[in-house]
Structures are given as C-alpha cells and as structure tokens.
Amino acid sequence: MKQFFKFVLATVVGIFAATIIMGVLSVIIFAGIISSASEKETPVEANSVLMLDFKKPIGERTPNNPLADLNFLGFEDKNLGLNDILANIKKAKTDDNIKGIFLNESYLSSGQATTEEIRNALIDFKKSGKFIVAYGEVYTQSFYYLASVADKIYLNPQGFFELSGFSSEVTFLKGTLDKLGIEAQVIKVGTYKSAVEPFVLTKMSDANRLQVTSYLNSMFGHFLDGISKSRKINRDSLFAYSDNMRVRYPEDAVRLKLVDGLKYKDEVLEDLKKRTKTDLKDDLNAVTINEYDGAPTNGGADKDGEDSGSSRNRIAMIYASGEINGGDGDDNTIGSEKLSKALREARLDDKVKAVVLRVNSPGGSSLASDVIWREVAITKKVKPIMVSMGDVAASGGYYISCAADSIFAEPNTITGSIGIFAVLPNMQKFFNDKLGMTFDNVKTSKYADLGDISRPLTPAERAILQNQVNHGYDVFTGVVAKGRKKSQRYIDSIGQGRVWTGKQALKIGLVDRLGNIDDAVKAAAKKANIKNYKVIEYPEQDSPFKSFSSAFSAEVKTRIIKSELGVDYRYYDQIKQVKSIMRVPQARLPFNVVIK
After folding, report:
1. pTM for the predicted model, two decimal places
2. What is the mean predicted confidence (pLDDT) over 392-407?
3. In what order do the strands lie in the sheet with 286-288?
4. How far is residue 596's CA from residue 516's CA, in Å, rounded to a whole number?
5. Of 340, 351, 302, 337, nearest to 318 (Cα)?
6. Given 6, 229, 333, 500, which residue has the most CB atoms within 10 angstroms?
7. How far is CA 317 from the centre of its chain?
C-alpha cells in the first residue's frame, strides 16, 4: 500500500510539473507567434498593383489581434479598420513601387459614410496620376458608388449590375410580443422618436415614414450626384435608369455608359499587366491591402503637417464606436467610464494640443451619454476638440458630440434623433397564461416595486416615468442648445427624435461642415496653431491576448448561430437587443435602421 501511494504521489507531482512546463512553453510559443506576426514587414516589388477587396464589415479601427494574419485556429486575414484602409491608400499614393489600384469585386458591407471616406481617399489617390481599375461579377450599389471613381470599370459578361434605388426596412415585434402575452409599456418624448415603434406598432407611423423618406432621398440624391460627377452622366438620367430599372443585363450597363466594358477576370488581369509593363507570361505583381499594411511608410511630415516622426505636438484621435453604455465597454461598444478616461488623459497630457472625437454610434444609455458629454465640455475649455462623424452619430451619439468646438459630418452620415425614451415590459399575461406563474408581494412604500415586470404600470407610476423622460429630453435639448449656440426652443423644433443626414444637418445647424476625418484633424491643428504634429489614438485597445480570446469565442458563437439561421440571423440580433433597451432611459436611433 505504501508503494502504491508513492506511485500515486509521483504521478500527481509529474502531472503537475508537466502542466506547469507546458503552460510556460505555450506562453513562450504564443508570445513568439505574436512577436513574429507583429514584426512582419511586407516587401513591395516594383511595378506592383494594390488590390482592394472589401468583403468584410469595415470598423473604425483595425482590431488588435496579431494572430489574424496567421490563419490560426480558423482565423482568416485580419479585417482592416477604416483608419488603416485610409492610411494605406494614402501611403500608396506616394509609393513609387505602386503603379495603380485594382478594385476587385466587393460586397462592401459598410455604412454610407465609411464608403464615402474610402471613395474620397481614392479620388485623392488619382491626383498622383496613377490608375484605378475596377472589376466585378456583381456590382452592388455600394460597390459601384466606390468603383465609379475608377479610370476603367469592367463588368463580367454574365455578371449582375444593381441600380434600383435605396430602401429602408424596419422589423416590427409587436405581433411577436402579442403572441407571447408581453406588453411594451412605452414612455417617450419626440414625435419622430421611432425607436419604440417596433414594440407597439405593426408598421411605420406617418411621422416616421415622413422622416425616413426625407433622409433616404437625401442619401440617394448624394449617391446620384457622386456618380454623375465621376461618370459624367446627367443626374436626371441616372435617376431614370434607377426608377425604371433600365440595367437588366450587362450590355445595358455598357450602353448607358455606367461601365466601360464587359471582360472576364483574366482579360482584366491582362490589362493590368499592360498598364504595369509586365510581360504577359509573367505573374502580375500584386499586393493586397492587408499585405500592404505591413509595408514600410515614408518617414517625415507630409504637406498637411502630419508627422510620422518624433514631433512633440500631438493630436488625440479618440474613437467612440458602437452602442453607448455605462462601464468600460470594449472595442465594439462605448463604455462611458473608458471613454471618459481617454478624454481625461488627452486633456491632461501637455503634449496633446488638440482632440478629435471620432463618433460612430446610434446612441444608447442617456445617462452614459451625459457622462461622456461632460468630459467633452470640460475638454473644450482646455484645448480644441473637434468631432468627426462616421456612418451614424445620432441620439446619444449626437449628445456626446454637441459640446465640441466644431462638428464635421459626411453628407450621408445619419445624425440628429434628439429624443429620449424608455420601454418597460409588462409580462403579466406571459407569466399567467403561458407559464401558469402568479406573484404576490409585500412592500413598505407605495412605489417600492415600481418597474416590476410581472404587472402593468399604474397611472401614477406612468406619470412619474413620463416626467423623468421629459426631464431627460429637457436636459438633452438644453446641452445641444448651449453647444450649438441656438435657442432651446429651436432645438426642440428640429429635435423631437427626428433623424437627419449630414447634408440636412448642415442646413439646420446641427453640424458645422461636411468633411472627413482628415478635415477634422486639420481643423484641430489649425485651431491649436500647430503645423507639425503626430496623431495618437485613444482609448487603448484590448491586449492581444484578450483580443484573441474574446474574438475567438465571439467568432465561434456567431458562426454557429449564423450557420443555423442563415439570412435570418439579423432578426435574432435585433431581438437580442431588446433586453438592453428595456432597462434604462435610452437616447438612441430608431430600432435598427437598415438601408438597402
């Protein structure tokens, strides 16, 4: 028996020691992989073509995941953020080894303003005299809008070309809630605050239909203007092509001068070889934008003043992307605590001479939005702060923007939606009729159980909540009026939850200029009276280990659900958001704006 315990003890110690050794080795190997991935530099051969292929959603910033390039554990190439996409196009403009850009077929699942930023970067790239060639088997409207700036646009002879106008769809959940015996008790301010409509209606209200029609026409008009200018086609003609769906076959796109020719991909690649003076028997020197991200950058300051060197003058680029909630948030959501900390760090850093707050958010918690707004307002007293709006900067996203010195938006940015709402579910019928559950309670005070979801609100309770929401709206319109130097009465008249495009918002005074991220940075530098500067990004992204762990678990979970639901995944995603909305007063966009 003594010998038995000796062997058991030896085995346990051996396993324990082996576990420690394997753990240490794993950390070393993992760290080595990260180190080698982060140090990887891409050589770019002479007469190369930069290939742009956007088939994944484009975020504001590239995730901090150095393993993404390694196809490790099923991960594909890293998904570059808008920041690196724009930087690489700008880098290619002055890179003698890059002779042109090839826009390869892309479904471009990005927002309108993101597409606008990339398109403008391509227009700027063309000033170098280098070519841009576009090819696609399928041209969605978003990809065609991007490709319309190309010198030559080619479509597959059997391909598909979409030009049918914009549409916006809202999913309504009232019927589902009725079947479950759940009543959405809505308290709101704002005639146009349509975020609650999916809970209480089965179709758009007249007011919501009016605002959606207005901003959709504004966005489509900008879309047509851009193509008209690039392709030199009359705007009214383009509208007629869309309204009558004149492009039904590839030949129609050529005849209407929307594309320059019908070619198969091998013919397009042959054209690129001729443009780069490559022997037709040799392979084309091509580098993807992901690979090019690792190419060296030209040092020194460019003509606009941004310094890639060691300038002590800094401009803080603070990213506010995603829903607004309390706490720290993550790389895909805005946590009021984390963003407030970033603003404080930039404000207290003497090297930081100005701040650009990049906002891409539909809003969220009104309380968290107010916490962030306070930090923006304090920062404004100390140093210049500009706001650059992305695809969406509405409701809470506008709340955190309004105190800035100046607000920049793209013409097709979605903004405004100044309003507050709260939704409290009454699940009495669901519990009683569906589950057979009943409840009883004892309380010390009249309103001790206010907010209990097992019963409906009393008239007195509803009045209390309505007063709280009214107060929230009064605060909201008050801070906007102060920030925009308008009367609160005027802000209320253009508020009421109404959504505007950037172009419309400029006319009514909600934004100051139409422009992109670079415009906001240059304006910040000018106001700070600095010529050479370095742009530093805040807040700090999650560590590689945390990014890898969270990205991997989220990727696996999402893939499993998507494989089961397919195209219906978006309905699951919308229903999942109901829980977060039915908690605290919200300053957020209409429930999931979808533009096709």
Report:
1. 0.85
2. 97
3. 261-262, 152-161, 131-139, 98-103, 48-52, 286-288
4. 23
5. 340
6. 500
7. 16
